Structures are given as C-alpha cells and as structure tokens.
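Hey, sorry to bother you again with one of my protein questions. I've been staring at a protein lately and its backbone has me curious. I owe you a coffee for this, so here goes:
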Amino acid sequence: MVTEAEIEFATGTRLLSIDAIDLDGNGLPELYLSAVSGTVLNAQVVEYRDQTYQNTVSRIPWFLRVAELPDGERSLLAQSLGSLDAPFSERSFRVNRTGDELTRGANVSLPANITLFSFLPVASAENEPLFAYITGGEYLKVVSAQGDEFWGSEQHFGGTDVSFYPEHNANKELVNPVFIQQRLLKNAAGELLAVQNEGIRTFQRFRQFKKSRVVALAWNGFALQERWQTADQNGYLADIALADADNDGVEELVMVVKYQQKNLIQKGRSAIVIYELGNQQAAAAP
C-alpha cells in the first residue's frame, strides 16, 4: 500500500465513518465522511479534483452512510441527530447533490430500532422485504419491514469503540455516548458479512476488544446460517470493505485492524489486512 494523499481537516474534527459513491455522476466516486466537531455533526466530503484530493464540502449536519436498499440500489443516506436518549430516532433520507451542495431527498422507510450505519436487506423466498441489523446490545437480528422479529443471534456481533458525546457535560456519567456501529456487507455470492469483535463490552464508557473476525452468513428461510469465517485477528477490527484492493481484477475482503491502543506508555499499531475470496472461504493474503 502506497500513500496517495493526506487530507487535513479543521482542528477539533473527529471522523466517525467513511463511504464512497459517485453521487455527482462524473465517473469518480467521492468520499463521504460522518464527522463531529465537539457535539455537533459536521460531515465532510473529499474528492479528486484538479489533479489532487480535496476537502470540498463540510459543515453537513447529518450522519452519512452508503447503504443498499431492498430494490438493490446503493444510495447515500443521511440522518439528523436525535435526542440524547434516542440519537438515531430521526427519519433516514436519501441525499441529493447539485454542485457542491447536498440536499435532503425522499425519506427512506426502515424498521424501528434500525440505525443508519448497520443494516442490510435480506432476500426471502416469499419476496417479503427482510432486514438484518446489529442491535444496540450488539446482537444480529432479522426483522420484517414492519419490525417483526424473525431471528436473533445468541452471540455478539459488531462491537465498536467509535463514539462521541452529544452534549457538553463536565460529568459525562450523566450523558451516554453515541456509538457508530459496524457496517454489514454482502459479497458476490449473496452472503452477509458481519464483523465479530470479542472483548469487554459490559460498560458504556469502557470497551476493550482483543480478538476479532469476519463471519459470512446466509439466510435459509428461518435463520442466518454461518457459511465461513476468517481466521481470528488478535486485535480490534475497526472496519471492513469489499474492493479490488490489489488491482488484480478480483474483489477482496479488506479489514482495518487495530492491534495496539496508543496511550502514555506505548505507541498505537494498526494494519490493513486483505483476504482473497474464493471457494466460499477467505484466505489471508501476505
């Protein structure tokens, strides 16, 4: 991996998530980043313009996520920050773009309790729209469009340490952090790919994940059934993507893993791990 560019953001900006989509239709995908400045949502756009990467749009007061909808279309969705007790209670909506301006489009109907960041449509034999999502308690569930539960996991899935406090308060024990949950993906075989971080998740304000993997599952009409999983990584799996990461014309599973947390006595250590996909299993690349 070779560094192509480094993008600087305004002091105090914390990046929460990253997605790519060609929203302006010019043939080049832009990067859409959920971000926060203090307690205020401050999403950003980065794109390749005039032979360089630039931060072209900022101060967007929404969460942003590229997501697949039941009609199979990938769209940029957005959501405003809700109340302290229900930060993801606002309606999700499509984002439109004209020039360097993002505007609110049509609302998107999603089942109750599903967050913008962690859901995926599931194909059913009856052609009834089903949705897989990771709950606030970090379990994997499948529900109908009306919110009726069809299946729930016994094991934890997801697991994130990306969060921010939505209100200034000297005593933060009175304010719950807002967590940005892990994404769910679908590969070419139609399997659902979910992150599984293991570790301490008992307390809202202290989380520590020391082992992780990606699990591939398929809906059999009654449950999400495991097909395969990657080898365990001895660290926190921060994000995943499906992309041709090594330019060989074949899509790989790309994982960002944090092996060591930076603190006063040690340096942080993280890496990009690439898995070749084939024969219904993932094999780690060098």
The chain has a mean pLDDT of 91. The two ends are 12 Å apart (CA to CA).
